[in-house]
Amino acid sequence: MKSYSQIVQGNKRTDATFVAAGLVLLLIAMLTLLALIFDLASQGIPRLSWDFMTNFPSRRPPGPVSYQHGWAPVW
Fold first, then answer.
1. pTM
2. Residue 10 CB partners (closer than 8 Å, separation 6+)
3. For a 10 Å CB count at each end of the chain, is N or C smaller?
4. What is the residue-wise DSSP string for 6-27?
5. Rounded distance between C-alpha atoms, residue 75 and residue 71, angstroms
6. Exposed, middle or buried: residue 23 (CB in 10 Å: 0-12, 13-18, 19+)?
7. pLDDT digit string (tens) for 19-61?
8. Among 4-8, 9-13, 14-18, 67-71, where is mean pLDDT lowest?
9. Residues 6+ apart with CB under 8 A from 2
């Protein structure tokens, strides 16, 4: 039969393994998020211009708006 100290040592190893696995998964998630943000910024920043920042969109769009009205109840 195992003594109390052996059980405690086993639990400590299990806890340390769980913490290490959690930290590895957290690191993977953070690196994935960082890669997605970098990809978004690298594709989006070149599309921004001063005109985009200062002008408002037209109140009368240059095409049919039936598509927008058709989807309005969905949103």
1. 0.58
2. 2
3. N
4. HHHHHHHHHHHHHHHHHHHHHH
5. 7
6. exposed
7. 999 999 999 999 999 999 999 999 988 888 888 777 766 666 6
8. 67-71
9. 10
3-state helix, strand, coil in the chain (%, to 5): 75, 0, 25
Structure token digits, residue 66: 């039936």
Residue owning tokens 């960082």: 34
User: Tokens 């109140």 map to which residue?
Assistant: 59
